[in-house]
Structures are given as C-alpha cells and as structure tokens.
Amino acid sequence: MSKRGLTLVMLVLAVISFMPIFWMFTLSLRTEDEAFTVLFFSQHIEWQNYLKAWHNFDMGILFKNSIIVTSSSISLTMLVGVCAAYAIAKLRFTGAKFMFFLFLSGIMIPPQGVVIPLFLFMRRIGFYGGHLSLISTYFAFGLCITIFILKSFMETIPDQLIEAARIDGCSELGILWKIVLPLCRPALATAIIFLFLRNWNEFFLAYTFLQDGSLFTLPVGIASNVTMYRSPWELIGAAVIIAGLPLFIAYLLLQKQFIEGMIAGSMKG
Amino acid sequence: MTLFQGNMIKALKKQKAGYLLVAPALLTFIVFLLYPIINSLYLSCTEWKGFDVSEITFVGLRNFVWLSQDELFWRSLYQTIIYVLTVTFFLNLVGFLLALIIEQKAKGYKVFRAIVFLPVLMSMVIVGVMWSRLLDPFGFVNLVLEKAHLGYLARPWLGDRRFALGSVVAANVWQWAGFDMVIYYAGLQGIPRGIYEAASIDGTTYLQRVRLITLPLLKPAITVAVVLNLIGGFRVFDLVWVMTKGGPNYHSEVLATYLYKKAFSFHRMGVAAAVGLIILVFAFVASYIRLKTAGEVTQ
C-alpha cells in the first residue's frame, strides 16, 4: 500500500480510537434536554456544566485527596527504593542476590489476591478508612518495581567512579546523593511516571479501604457519585473530562516519557 | 595497620552500609507484602464477618469445599477465563496490526501512535464510565445504529446477558490496544532490515514476509504481550465493577468481583480469602512462566 494510503488508514483508525473521548467531550457541553437526543454538538454550548460538575461531585476534594495519596506514596517509594537499589547494585553485601530475587518476586503480587489479609491488617493497625491505608499499600506495592528499574540502571554506572569518591572519604549516603542519583535521572523519571500512573488511577484498594466520601480519591469519587446520585449525563461527561484533563496535558508535554514509563514498568511489572 | 586489614575494614563497612540501606525496603516488603501472602493461607481456612476481627474461627478446608460446590464461583471462574482469552486474543491481533501500520512510518505515524496510546494512561474507572454511556440504551452506539437505519440492532448492551461481558471486553481492548501496539512496534524495530530486503529480492509478497519472517522473529514480543495481557485480564475488577457490577444476573461476574461481593456484601471473609488465594496462585504461575521466558525478552 502506498504511504499516502497508509496515512489515510491511520486517520480513519485514529478517529475511531478517539471517538469515545470526543463524544464524551461533546456530551459534557450539552443541555440536559439534549443529552440523549443529539449525536454530537447542539445549538447551545453549556460550559456551565463544568462548574456544576466540579461542585456537585466535590471534585476539588477528590483532586486534593488524590494528590495527597499519590505524592506521599511516591515519595516514600522513591526514598526507600533508591537506597535499596543502590545497596543491591553497588554495595554487593552478602545476600544481596537473594534479596533482589525476593523483591523481583514481589512485582507480580496482584492487590486482589491479598486484599482480605490487607483489610484485616489495616483494621488492626488502625489505618483502615484513612489515607494512610492507601499511602502505605501503594508505597509497598510500588517498591519492588522501583528497585528493579533503578538497580538495572545503577549497574551501568562504573564502579571506579564510586570507588574514587569513597577514597576521597565520601560516605555511602553522600555517594548515593551526589554521584549516583544525578546519573540516574532517566531511570528515576521512568519509575516516577509509572508509579504516578498506577497510584493516581488505582481503584480497587481505594474502594475497599475508604468509607468516608470526604477522603475519596478521584477514581473512587467518580465511580461512587456516578452510580449513587443517578447524575445527569452531561455532568458525568464534564466530570470525566475534568478528571482526565491533568493527565492529558501532562501526556501532551511528556508523551515519550509516558509511553516509555508505562512500558518499562509493565514489562518488568 | 596492614593493607590487607585496611581492605577488610573497608569491605565490612560496605557490608554494613548495604544492610542498613536495604533494611527499610526489606521491612516494608515483609510487613505489607510477605505477611499478607502468608496470612492469606491461614485466612482462607477461617470464617469471620469482616468487622469482628477478634472472632476469626479456623474451619480447615471448608471454604474450598464450599467454593467447589458454589455454582456462582464456577460461573465467575469460567467467565474470567473467557474474558482473559478473548481480551488477550483481540489485544494481540489489534496491537500487531497497528504495529505493522506504524512500522511503515508513513506521514503522521507519531501522532497516530500518541492518540492510540492515550487511553492506556486513563483510569479504568473513567474508561468504564465512558463506555457505560456509549453502550447505554440511549447512548452513542444505539444512536449511531438508529441514524444508520440499523435500529433493530440497538439494544441495552450492558443489560443484555449475551452482550454484557463482551461489552467489557470491547472497552478493555479499546483501552489497551495501544499498549500491545507499542510492544509489537519495539519488537519489529529489532528485526534487521537486511532480512526483508533479501526476501523481497527473492520475490516474496508482503504477506509472505509477515508470515515467514516477521512472526517467527517476533516470538519474544508475542510472549511478553500475551503473558502481560493474561496477567492483567485475570485480575480485572475496575471495568466490570463500573460497567456492569457483574450483572445482569451474574452474566459478567469475574473472580475479583465475586471476591469483593463475598467479602463486603455477604461478609464471608474466609471464602473471599480463599478466592484471593486462587488469584495469587495464578499470578505466581504466570510470573514464573514470564521469568522463565525473560531471557528471550529484548527491550
């Protein structure tokens, strides 16, 4: 097939692929009467739907909660993961290989498989119902894959570089902070993007652990409000667009990193 | 102090630093991952109601016997397997075809790749909400069918027992096709150009080259994509929950939704833990297969 023909095929497929999102966008701009009857745009463009959806679904609170949970869990994962990856990759202590195998086996644990013991554990330590239940589990679930990504990358850093700093009297933490981390930027970005997508979108555990609507994260809030209040369609549309917009903008800016992060994280995880 | 002693001290210091740096991660791993896994072995042999955490009674293998006699459990397992197999089949087919298209690098292929990949980043909840509107009796799909004078095909897709599970499959394939596409695209990039050129000099057609050269050389990418799709499909919860909640009349119930209902609607935590254990075992078998084939995987 000619290249021009291929471009045409891609155009058609892209329209099909993007149609659900585009239709959702048009839905979000319709009036209540026309929500069911108009295929795409109607005479009136109701930008007000966005304000209504933002208030009706308490989206400010949902965003705030999602930001709290996602940023805290990622910070913890990175802090602990960086140290462990460095120890395994560069300090080669006795048992490092076994420990790496242990973390490797943790990558595949599905939350659905351990949700009941986790539920019991969260109740016992008093985390159940609060953000700490999510922050701690996201932190732990992200740790294994982070160690894997960072360790593979750190191994490519020459030992001489680290040895030289050690001879100069630099502490291990100093080496990690001043020499290893600046060199690891691409791997750090990959890990953070993957963790961000996973924690930001996570629904199952959040739905299980949270009870109080004022603590809901975005996915739980969207899922619960939509089914609970039998909301008008155009507001559901607006809520979905609002919820997806920050990620969409980030994707426009960092498209390559997002694709790489998602693939790298999933290939190994 | 001799040089030897000095080296010894340095090595010991390194060891100590290593243990100190890995300790927090190890502790987290043990408390939040290892302990729940081991505990699920025990909890699957108990019965409790969820909110009476002090009244957990040991019942032996009774939960597993109960599950084996529960028709709904078998239905959920069966539907999960159907779901996983169809999703995996279509994702790989579509992903592969899309990769073949963008591999030609015709004008605009980068924009195309970005658009097709976009849904991968979206929350499955949002995708579920979107597709429930699309497939609603008054939704986009039926509206289009009516405008195309195909109104007799319109139906409440998610409320029809024959189409509910298939609808969730469609949403899943739509969301993740871009993911498989990128994996296959990476695999295609790894095939040396020279082989194709030699083959086209020999007068082979494009389809022959795909069948005789591309597919065999793509085996590592196929393995990765298939195993990842199987793993992802087996734990599906979000999409089903948002779109159908397992209905109508349990015709789209899968293991994870079955587990959730058993635990938090019927308060049978022991039974739910047993289902969780089954999901865990599957995950470990799948990841074992993947580790075994990891050697073949090229990045």
Features:
heterodimer, A: 269 residues, mainly alpha, 13 helices, 77% helix, B: 299 residues, flat
What do you see in this structure?
The complex is a heterodimer of chains A (269) and B (299). Chain A is mainly α and 269 residues long. Chain A is built from 13 helices and no strands. Chain A has helices at 3-27, 48-56, 59-91, 96-106, 111-125, 131-154, 159-167, 172-183, 185-201, 204-209, 218-228, 233-253, 255-268. The mean pLDDT of chain A is 90. Chain B has a two-stranded antiparallel sheet with strand order 1-2. In chain B, α3 (71-103) runs antiparallel to α10 (219-234), α7 (164-189) packs antiparallel against α10 and α10 runs antiparallel to α13. The longest helix of chain B has 41 residues, at 3-43. The mean pLDDT of chain B is 90. Classes of the chains: A mainly alpha (269), B mainly alpha (299). At the A-B interface, α1, α3, α4, α5 and α6 of A face α1, α3, α4, α5 and α6 of B.
Helix vs. strand class of chain B: mainly alpha
Task: Estimate the helix proportion of chain A, in percent.
Answer: over 70%
Q: Sheet bearing the most strands of chain B, described?
A: 2 strands, antiparallel
How helix-rich are the residues of chain B, as a percent range? over 70%
Tell me the major beta sheet of chain A.
Answer: none
- The value of Rg of chain A in angstroms is 23 Å
Subunit organisation of the chains:
heterodimer
Q: What distance separates the N and C termini of chain A? A: 37 Å
Basic shape of chain B: flat
Q: Could you name the ranges of chain A where pLDDT drops below 50 across 5 or more consecutive residues?
A: none
Beta-sheet strand percentage of chain A?
Answer: under 5%
Please report the two chains with the greatest interface, counting residues with C-beta closer than 8 angstroms to the partner's C-beta.
A-B, 93 and 98 residues
Strand elements of chain B, count: 2
Radius of gyration of chain B (CA) equals 25 Å
Return the average pLDDT of chain B rounded to an integer: 90
Q: Treating each run of at least 4 consecutive H or I residues as one helix, how many helices of chain B?
A: 13
Low-confidence stretches of chain B: none
Number of β-strand runs of chain A: 0
